Amino acid sequence: MWETLLVNPFMNFLLLIYKLVGGNFGVAIILFTIIIRVVTHPLMASQIKSSARMQEMQNSKEWQDIQKKYKDDREKLAQEQMRIYREKGISPFASCLPSFIQLPILFAVYQSIVRALAASPSQLLILSGAVYPFFKLADIVPINSKFLWMNLGQPERIYVAGLGIPLLAILAAVTTYVQSKTTVPAATNPNDQSAMMSKMMALYMPLLMAWITYSLASGLAVYIIVGNLLGIAQYAMLGKVNWKSLLPGYKPAVTTTGKKS
Amino acid sequence: MKKKIFPVLGLLLGLSLLLGGCATGLTPGAWPTVASNGELAFIAGGAHVYAVDLQTHAEIWRFPEKASTAAPFYAAPAITPDGQVIVGGFNHTLYSLDPQTGAETRTFTGARDKWIGGMLVTDTRIYAGNADYNLYALDLNLNLQWSFQADQSIWGTPVTDGTNVYFGTLGRKLYAVNATSGEQAWAQSLDGAVLGAPLLGPDGTLYVGTYGSLLYAIDPRDGSILWSEAVSSWIWGGPALAGDRLVVGDGNGDLLSFPLGGGPASWTQPLNGMVIGSPVVLGDAILVGTDDNTLYFLNGDGGDIRPFAVSGKIHSTPVISGDRILVPLTEGEALLAVLDANGNQLWSYQPEK
């Protein structure tokens, strides 16, 4: 099911783009990322609206009142928060949703990149069986895995004085961090569960992406970095990027429990 | 507040492990291969190379003793005239092993990528192609004599007529390189990647199958194409010589026979499953394995088909050792099936974990 619905379509689509662009797999991954972002744009736009509604709700008097009223009863506070979420039709995890939606796509993209590059006999055999009938695979095998300084089927390093520097892993971490900081609405109440979740995600997602891009095929790193940049651009087009959040010492308008600052 | 961090951390850790597992599942691989010195079978079977006594069926040694996922072995082992067992790993290293103990005696670490294809061994040289696009010529002590950079990865075993070494690449080329100097004699472009070994015919003509579903006859003097014939799917392993005919299998499971001088197939025999390894000739019989767990015996005109079931897929070429047929198995209950010349399975070998 996973293979049929995600991995094989992604892989065939990547190969189709590869063929159309004249055999450059790096360019194929970049175009593939752009297309994925365009296709999922309505989902993202809807999520951005949902985040904005949540932000609005957290600044409401009702929300502030329950923070104050139940500040010493966490269980009751959580129940009341969930009641308001339900009433307003908002998911407390809405701000984290884009990151989570990306993960299964990441798995599928990674598998499709490695499979399409077919760097070993068993991978080529699997590719031979997974490619759609309209492809004449013999025309495009072997897939050119070289792009700029990278072998897209291998983890990337730039060697300086014998030291392997994982440039793409660094870029993946930085762009993930920038995306998280500039696009996730600043929390007005740091004690709020969703705010904490967002804060944790902003901290740990860059680390996770750095680890993934450090240890797996660099084609995936290209996908992640381009995807992050496009994600920031999408938010910017909708006027939802908060560049100030990147400034050192920046603090959103914080509300202590029950009170606006 | 700290307690609330734990679910997030747990979730990320879980996702990390999931992706880690996903990456492990995609570790590039191949399928087991086998060679024999008549006394022992040497099986390149992934994490280890195994030596199995053909009389007692006992495992004599395994190399390395502790499994390493970083250095799986799939390239067909080769045996030198002085008895060394040469194996290549996915860790870019070529090893010389003592055939009796499995002890590592020498290594060649000059390659930059995986050893996938088999090696050609002569009285004084070892010729081996690597995924780093190079054909390496080594002496029997694994000292580099020369290397030749081709256009793409080399997955097939080279052949030689004493003057040149011939090999194909994934870049759809067949090369002839001087066996002594390593200088290119010629290169011929073909319609598809060459995944298997070329075959040298009785008059020196080269025969090679491609992933582009064509079988070629090539003039060894200048690389010119003498003839080509289409088959219905890709050819992975090379053709074999059966009397005065060529036999070759394809990805659709067809086994075909062609006259050496060219022309349409004399006969086509559909089998169940893909044919990935090369056919083998044993006496009057043609043996060919398929990925539907069957070793087929046919006579020279493609008739009298006798299928023999084994407990795994046959992806590599069976090896004849004396009166036994050694069949490496993929994804099966055993790593090696040993059959007699009539196709009866005598025993099988599955390594203990």
What does this structure look like?
The complex is a heterodimer of chains A (261) and B (353). By secondary structure, chain A is mostly helical. In chain A, 64% of the residues lie in helices and 5% in strands. Chain A has ten helices and six strands, in the order H-H-H-H-H-H-H-E-E-E-E-H-H-H-E-E. Chain A has helices at residues 2-20, 25-39, 41-58, 61-69, 74-88, 97-117, 121-130, 167-183, 193-215, 218-237, and strands spanning 146-147, 150-151, 158-160, 163-165, 255-256, 259-260. Chain A has a two-stranded antiparallel ribbon with strand order 1-2. Chain A has a two-stranded antiparallel ribbon with strand order 3-4. In chain A, helix 8 (167-183) runs parallel beside helix 10. Chain A starts with a helix and ends with a strand. Residues 255-261 of chain A have low confidence and may be disordered. Chain B has 353 residues and is mostly beta strands. Chain B has one helix at 2-25; strands at residues 33-36, 40-44, 49-53, 59-63, 78-79, 85-88, 94-97, 104-108, 119-121, 125-129, 134-139, 144-149, 159-160, 164-168, 173-178, 184-189, 199-200, 206-209, 214-218, 225-230, 240-242, 245-249, 254-259, 267-270, 280-282, 285-290, 294-298, 306-309, 319-321, 324-328, 336-340, 345-349. In chain B, strands 1-2-3-4 form a four-stranded antiparallel sheet, with no helix packed on it. Chain B has a four-stranded antiparallel sheet with strand order 5-6-7-8, with no helix packed on it. In chain B, strand 15 and strand 16 form a beta hairpin. The chains are: A mainly alpha (261), B mainly beta (353). Chain A binds chain B through residues 103, 106-107, 110-111, 114-115, 119-125, 128, 137-139, 141-142, 191, 193, 196-197, 200-201, 204-205, 208, 211-212, 215-216, and chain B through 1, 4-5, 8-9, 12, 15-16, 18-19, 22-23, 26, 28-31, 74, 90, 114, 116, 131, 152-153, 155, 170-171, 191-193, 195, 210-213, 234, 251, 276, 315.
